[in-house]
Each structure stands twice: as C-alpha cells, then as structure tokens.
User: What shape does this take?
Amino acid sequence: MTLFYLIRHGEPDWQINENYRLKGHGRDLAPLTARGIRQVYETSKDQRLRQAELIITSPYTRAMQTSAILSKELSLDIAVEFDLREWQPDLTFEYDTLERLNELVQDYERCGGVYPPGETRIWESKPMLKSRVDSVLRRYAQHEVVIVVGHGMAFRTQVNREDIPCASITEYEIGK
Assistant: This one.
C-alpha cells in the first residue's frame, strides 16, 4: 500500500484574476495570500509528513508555492505533475470572470459532475478528473509515503468528500 498525504494548497489570492481579467489557465497564476503562506508553514509541522519520500505537485502557482514551502521545511524533492492540475471548468480555456466560473461550477454540481445522457458540457467531468489524477498516483505506487499537493475539486473526486480546507491533509491509500 502507498499512503498519500493529499494537501490542498494554501489560501490563494483570487483578486489578482479580477484585477487583471485573466482568462483560462491565466487564472491559475494566483499566488498564496499571507494567510495562505502561514497555513502551509503550520501544516509543514505535522509529524506525519516526516515519513514522506517526496512531494508531487500540480503545476499551478498556488500549488507550486505550497510545495516549495513544504519542500524547504521537510527537505524533500518536488516532482511537478501536469495531470495533478485542478478540475477544468472550461475545456476551451475561454472563461474570464468569477461570474462565469460560478455558472460552470453550478452546472457541474447540478449534473453531479457527470454529463447528462447524450449531452456534453465544456467542463471536465468527474470521471475524467478522477481518471487523470488516478493515473498520476499509480505512477508513484512504488513509494511508501508521498505528499501530493493539489486542489480541492481534484482531491474531492479521490476521497468522495465535499469539504477540503486550504492547507489541510487528507490521507489516501492505494494498493501497489
């Protein structure tokens, strides 16, 4: 069994998106707030993390910044995994407002993350997201303990839990 410590990134500064009217993946450049940085330093003190062999992380700024803090505090290497990125609310990468994001999230939730029969949506479905994240985790199943830094929606599909606070640790195991 491999034990994964799923750590959601610290609190991000979403206001940057609105200030710069960022679109698509540009919206994922938001760094952590000062509070988010403090959250991650606090999380790094959790003794369970001392067992980890490495950190794998989403490529998004908020996750990379979280991983950098954990790496420094725990003296662990970081591997960046593109497929640990957050749920894609718009596979066309065109949305550019918080209002549009909220519309897409509401549609996703209304549909339970699954496209209605015979229909498609522009958002990434729950099965697509779960498969993407599963494929990354399986590549690290030869390790005993791995820290995974990523995102709330991505982790929710793995552990079937609704509330995953910023900088929290969720234990998740898979067989080798």
User: Anything to note?
Assistant: The radius of gyration is 16 Å. Helices lie at 15-20, 34-43, 61-74, 98-110, 126-139, 152-159. The first strand starts at residue 2 and ends at 8.
